[in-house]
């Protein structure tokens, strides 16, 4: 019994054992009184006492064997109750057997042992439940007025949260009700708290609570199923009522007060509790995706990576770094990190070393534009799997520096692919972008050209039937949209602007993009690689195919800006303004995941789609890349862009219009 008050010299174990033996001693007279009331009424008190004490000695054995007195009373639960019931049953059965052998049980009802087992179980459980309730409800002095909460999600998460705040009275939360996903749950009680309505009823429920003087300080999201559009509607209802929205801590962080001070509602952006208090974390921007996160086949990823030599280019970037971390967790034979930025390489190498100290790895400072360097790196590492994440991805910057985009995204990708093929890699994966579909920017066009080279290489492999020294290398293209929180993306920009007090700058009110999380992006790359390595892509995409994450419904950038303002506890257009700045060169209002001449089908894995490629003959693409590289290295942007538009007919080179330098995003 935790914190059970005890006289000096007595331990908690001794007190618990004494209480259990006392309860055992009175259980037999009580059971006999229920089954043979006349007999027990005529029996002398001394005989009854001796019978009770004799049974207590018998009960001592199962109590000790099952370690019942050692188990905490304050945290009494179902497992403890089962253990007590088993100890009671053993004690009563043993006592009945001994009495039968001695011939002393015959005057009593044959139902007495069963009744006694029930009585004893109740007697042993009752003080434990009473102590737990006392400690959790009334075992402290006065505390601050509790903050009212409304829980969103009447499910296992709500049950866990209610149990957590009930286990310590210093957590100053009062749950006034719950909102359910299922309309059938309306009117039910969960731990004596009513289900007041569904998520769709949030506005009306909040109004009713406010009218009744029960307005909550916050809505706490306890269900992982609440995300995307439902989360956005919940935020809208909460904003209208002036109520904050928070998420329940993850299970591993659901730790309650070790010190006085109670649970608190942190300000937006506050981190985990540092003093043992239960703190509710802010809603993350990832919670606003218009779809649930995709659960990909991790067993297939493990089969792909485990025991193999792996190389990642662009390993210091957002996607490359997450790829390296996930790959390291699957136990590769070795991991080679290739990066052009010294500091980014140092950081990812340190992260892998700290997380997986026994993993053989090498940090290689190299530029993918240096063909000879890439050939040497691949020859030394002899990778079986190559993940090509290195690229220039920021649309306006590549528009302003088109030759650098060509040399990195197109020529550099060719260098990586050729070097990996020469090193006889099994699978090489290109990380592409939705901006490569009908590209309007230099960045998108160069990534489309990189896709074309990969597709041509894989078509050559298929035509050769995997024959030859290097003919067996698979080349796979993985395409996805914007990654939340990646370097140069909209989310970090909006956060910086919020820290300055605004305004948040959006290029156009109708601008929309597909979004995914960094972890999903890296998992997609691994899942697509596993499909290709196991020859699992469907027929249209089997040769040179493109794998795409089913990214659901695109998100309007202005809606994302408004939600980020709300998540900061502020009001859009009241506390923080939103300013539209106009489209920048190379930008489109909407992005596409597939070209009209890329018929797509399910890829055989949940959340993945595959498309047939638009292929060109390898020799033609290679000669065109040679000419393009010569123009780029010759500092002739007009010629290079003209050649790029011939290679990628959908692309039209930008005109001489001035380029906005303002820090905006769409």
Topology summary:
Layout (H helix, E strand, L loop, with lengths): L11 H24 L1 H6 L2 H21 L12 H25 L9 H27 L8 E6 L3 H11 L6 E8 L8 E2 L2 E6 L3 H10 L6 E4 L6 H14 L2 E4 L33 E2 L15 H8 L3 E5 L4 H12 L4 E6 L2 H14 L5 E5 L5 H11 L3 E4 L6 H6 L1 H21 L4 E7 L8 H23 L9 E7 L1 E2 L6 H10 L4 E3 L5 E2 L1 E2 L1 H16 L12 E4 L5 E2 H11 L10 E3 L19 E3 L5 E4 L6 H16 L3 H11 L19
Parallel strand pairs: 1-2, 1-5, 2-4, 5-6, 8-9, 8-11, 9-10, 11-12, 12-13, 13-18, 14-17, 15-20
Antiparallel strand pairs: 3-4, 6-7, 16-19, 18-22, 21-22
Helix pairs in contact: 1-3, 1-5, 3-4, 4-5, 7-8, 9-17, 10-11, 10-17, 12-14, 14-15, 14-19, 15-20, 16-18, 19-20
Please tell me about this protein's structure.
- The protein is an alpha/beta fold.
- The protein has three domains: 127 residues, no CATH class; 137 residues, Rossmann fold, CATH 3.40.50.720; 279 residues, NAD(P)-binding Rossmann-like Domain (Rossmann fold), CATH 3.40.50.
- Helix content is 45%, strand content 14%.
- The chain has 20 helices and 22 strands.
- It has a nine-stranded mixed β-sheet, sandwiched between helices. A seven-stranded mixed β-sheet has the order 3-4-2-1-5-6-7. Strands 14-17 form a two-stranded parallel ribbon.
- β9, α11 and β10 form a beta-alpha-beta unit.
- α12 packs parallel to α14, α14 runs parallel beside α15 and α14 packs across α19.
- It is elongated.
- It starts with 11 loop residues before the first helix and ends in a 19-residue tail after the last helix.
- The N terminus and C terminus are likely disordered.
